[in-house]
């Protein structure tokens, strides 16, 4: 019997033939360039069976390919088996991008313009040249996808910045209008959901793990129009006056599908005015409407991205408390897991994941997980974005390594933490890998660097211990993290690919070097670090990091000679701070267990 995904690709090829398309590009995103789309827009998963968060598909008459990065290579090979879809590896020196591949294989390319950014389509157009053609076919899978999920509608919550931290909505709007005035724009159109949520201080749950509301935002010097698939009936019971609060600040609530009508208003002006959009997040279909109808479009990087990334002091204080609360949940979980496994009880990866979620749910202000828990024992840990199965989940044994990567969404912040836990006796290779990855994380944590330094320049600090042993990992070392927003945000990053954005005081970024041995084990150590001022000298201004995450590192798998005295001192000081901060908040038995786990490591 033919594979269901192969059948769907055949149906798509029939559509392509009927329309005269040489190729179709299917994005793994949604109309707002979201990293994690709602089920309605999981088109790559529906077409191919691949469930990774990053992946795009190209289908021609004789080829189907999935483009994804090293986090998903092993997963893609397993999930694509029997579908006829070939894996194209990205972010490697010899990788061929989708636009370059299309140049060799197609002339007429159809895209779902609702789910392709302007920048992505422009790259395809540039590669095809004047003789090529890109066709905008919004929702092109609609007629093939039986039972396709609807656009989600969930309650809207407004944030109380006086209680939880942040900048009042009206101040953010005033700031954006000042920016517009300086830059000479009449309107700014925002389509990125986390930027809109930040601007309006609204949250929802339209997308799993991300407290976002599917919407568009149009800001002029006189008006603020929020296009959203909601009504006053869909406000959160805890904040029933959300819409009244928004209206009091001058926000006009419009229906989501009326966005084209709202955008057409500026065309009625004498000269149309100057409209600013960010082509990296705006979808091609909406851009087409604006540019073809009126032509008054200015493109650039949204100023909201950087403003949102630099946390204000009230947010930072709330985040510090959030990481204490999250640390309590983590230590209670790790104590529970240690006891259960050491007593011989069979705990599966899935059961451990569910128990961790339960501990987090006991924290006041908890609003869900910030992403799907990665609960991975032994060989499962070698998959960077392993999806823990509910049925047939592997049992965690009293030996080897267990990796748990998880995080919570709280009214006071967002967390992301990875701990690799020795469950008992470990092999020499496991201990070597464990120590080298930990040393890389510590070396980056201790970094002191001049103002203007980028994450790209710091990335090697986390890799050097591994490089010296001729080992490496394929993904980035660090990503920005939101304030009760997306667990991944920019513009900063710490990775080997070039990123010109300097690290600035107030930016919170993950620190997560790793190592993966297929079929054996995976190791990742992750804390969230806050960039801060570190003084000045005759050589300039200096920055360093404050570690926000509070959860001990198990020293039983550490080889002290590989860690070295400076890193050991950092580790001992960190574990001692974890104990002193969290022990008074823990149950007595858990606090006593943590005392043993945080005893100083000797060199």
Describe the structure.
With about 600 residues, the protein is an alpha+beta fold. It folds into three domains: about 5-135, 3-Layer(aba) Sandwich (Creatine Amidinohydrolase, Chain A, domain 1), CATH 3.40.350; about 155-300, 3-Layer(aba) Sandwich (Creatine Amidinohydrolase, Chain A, domain 1); about 315-595, Creatine Amidinohydrolase (Alpha-Beta Complex), CATH 3.90.230.10. The strands form nine sheets. A six-stranded mixed beta sheet has the order 4-3-2-1-5-6, with helices on both faces. A hairpin with a 2-residue loop joins β29 and β30 (about 540-545).
Short structural summary:
By secondary structure, the protein is α+β, with helices and mostly antiparallel strands. The chain has 19 helices and 30 strands.
Low-confidence stretches: none
Helix/strand/pairing class, anyone?
alpha+beta
CATH class of the largest domain: Alpha Beta
From the N-terminal CA to the C-terminal CA, the straight-line distance is 61 Å
CATH superfamily of the largest domain: Creatinase/methionine aminopeptidase superfamily
Number of distinct beta strands: 30
**Quaternary state, please?**
single chain
Described by strand count, sense and barrel closure, the largest sheet is: 6 strands, mixed
Helix content: 25-40%
Q: From the coordinates shown, what is the CATH architecture of the largest domain? A: Alpha-Beta Complex
Task: Kindly estimate the percentage of residues that lie in beta strands according to DSSP.
Answer: 15-25%
| Biggest β-sheet: strands ordered side by side in the sheet | 4-3-2-1-5-6
């Amino acid at each position: 019997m033919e594979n269901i995904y192969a059948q769907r690709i055949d149906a798509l090829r029939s559509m392509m033939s009927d329309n005269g398309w040489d190729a179709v590009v299917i994005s793994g995103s949604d109309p707002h360039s979201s990293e994690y789309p709602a089920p309605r827009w999981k088109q790559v998963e529906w077409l191919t069976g691949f469930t990774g968060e990053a992946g795009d598909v190209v289908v021609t008459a004789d080829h189907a390919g999935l483009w994804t990065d090293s986090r998903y290579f092993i997963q893609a090979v397993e999930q694509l088996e029997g579908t006829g879809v070939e894996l194209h590896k990205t972010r490697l020196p010899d990788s061929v991008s989708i636009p370059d591949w299309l140049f060799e294989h197609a002339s007429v390319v159809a895209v779902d313009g609702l789910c392709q950014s302007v920048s992505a389509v422009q790259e395809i157009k540039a590669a095809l040249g004047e003789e090529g053609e890109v066709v905008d076919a919004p929702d092109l899978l609609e007629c093939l996808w039986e039972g396709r999920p609807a656009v989600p509608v969930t309650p809207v919550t407004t944030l109380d910045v006086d209680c939880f931290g942040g900048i009042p909505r009206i101040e953010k709007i005033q700031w954006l209008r000042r920016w517009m005035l300086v830059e000479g724009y009449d309107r700014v159109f925002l389509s990125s959901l986390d930027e809109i949520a930040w601007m309006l201080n609204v949250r929802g749950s339209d997308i799993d793990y991300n407290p976002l509301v599917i919407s568009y935002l149009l800001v002029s010097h006189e008006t603020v129009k929020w296009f959203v698939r909601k009504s006053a009936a869909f406000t959160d019971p805890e904040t029933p006056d959300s819409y009244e609060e928004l209206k009091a600040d001058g926000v006009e609530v419009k229906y989501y599908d009326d966005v084209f009508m709202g955008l057409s208003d500026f065309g009625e002006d004498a000269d149309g005015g100057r409209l600013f959009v960010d082509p990296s997040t705006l979808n091609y279909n909406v851009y087409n409407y604006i540019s073809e109808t009126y032509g008054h479009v200015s493109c650039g990087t949204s100023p909201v991205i950087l403003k949102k990334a630099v946390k204000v002091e009230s947010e930072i204080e709330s985040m510090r408390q959030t990481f204490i609360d999250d640390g309590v949940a983590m230590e209670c979980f790790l104590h529970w897991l240690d006891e259960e496994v050491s007593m011989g009880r069979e705990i599966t990866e899935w059961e451990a994941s569910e128990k961790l979620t339960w501990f987090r749910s006991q924290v006041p202000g908890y609003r869900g997980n910030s992403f799907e828990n990665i609960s991975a024992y032994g060989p499962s840990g070698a998959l960077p974005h392993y999806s823990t199965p509910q049925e047939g989940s592997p049992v965690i044994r009293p030996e080897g390594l267990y990796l748990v990567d998880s995080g919570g969404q709280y009214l006071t912040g967002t967390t992301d933490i990875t701990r690799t836990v020795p469950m008992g006796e470990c092999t020499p290779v496991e201990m070597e890998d464990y120590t080298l990855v930990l040393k890389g994380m510590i070396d980056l944590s201790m970094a002191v660097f001049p103002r203007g330094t980028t994450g790209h320049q710091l990335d090697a600090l986390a890799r050097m211990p591994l490089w010296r042993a001729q080992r490496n990992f394929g993904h980035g070392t660090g990503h920005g993290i939101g304030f009760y927003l997306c667990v991944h945000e920019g513009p900063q990053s710490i990775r080997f690919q070039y990123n010109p954005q300097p690290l600035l005081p107030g930016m919170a970024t993950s620190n997560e070097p790793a190592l993966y041995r297929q079929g054996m084990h995976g190791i990742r150590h992750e804390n969230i670090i806050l960039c801060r001022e570190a003084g000045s000298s005759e050589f300039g201004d200096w920055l360093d990091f404050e570690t926000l995450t509070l959860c001990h590192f198990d020293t039983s798998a550490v080889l002290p000679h590989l860690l070295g005295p400076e890193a050991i001192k950092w580790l001992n000081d960190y574990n001692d701070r974890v104990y002193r901060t969290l022990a008074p908040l823990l149950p007595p038995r858990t606090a006593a267990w943590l005392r043993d786990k945080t005893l100083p490591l000797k060199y």
